[in-house]
Amino acid sequence: MLWCFLSSVIMLRMEVDCSQGESTIPSFEEDCVELGDVKDMRLEAEAVVNDVLFAVAEMFVSQKLDNALDVAYINVETREGNRYCLELTEAGLRVVGYAFDQVDDSLSTQYHETVYSLLDSLSPGYREAFGNALLQRLERLKQNGQ
């Protein structure tokens, strides 16, 4: 039940407590950079990483694979220790490898419209971290009378 609620407000801009103090997690939608009618997937990938870095063990845009205007690759390690290479295109995000910087052309994995949906399907630890961050944010709003 709680996850259904969390999914409905997933695009809210969140503030998450970090060990260095408070930081604002930028909204993926706000960080999109478009060049005419084409989005620069390299910049989109950076926005994706910044949006969910707080809820995974490690995540970064691949420097070894060829990123371009129409495709970018993101390496992610879940809180459970599983590593994935993700492909980001106009079609969405999908797993293309089960190790950093690995693309397995024989994989035929499902595209996800959002990084939230993809990570939700891969990592219970992500789901828990995101839920906890959202609850903390809601509690701060309640305390501030908003």
UniProtKB/TrEMBL annotation:
It comes from the Eukaryota. One of its GO terms (cellular component) is cytoplasm. Keywords: Signal. GO terms for biological process: regulation of canonical Wnt signaling pathway. Residues 41-141 form the GSKIP domain. GO terms for molecular function: kinase regulator activity; protein kinase A binding. Residues 1-21 form the signal peptide. InterPro entries: GSKIP, GSKIP_dom, GSKIP_dom_sf. Belongs to the GSKIP family. This is GSKIP domain-containing protein. It comes from Albula glossodonta (roundjaw bonefish).
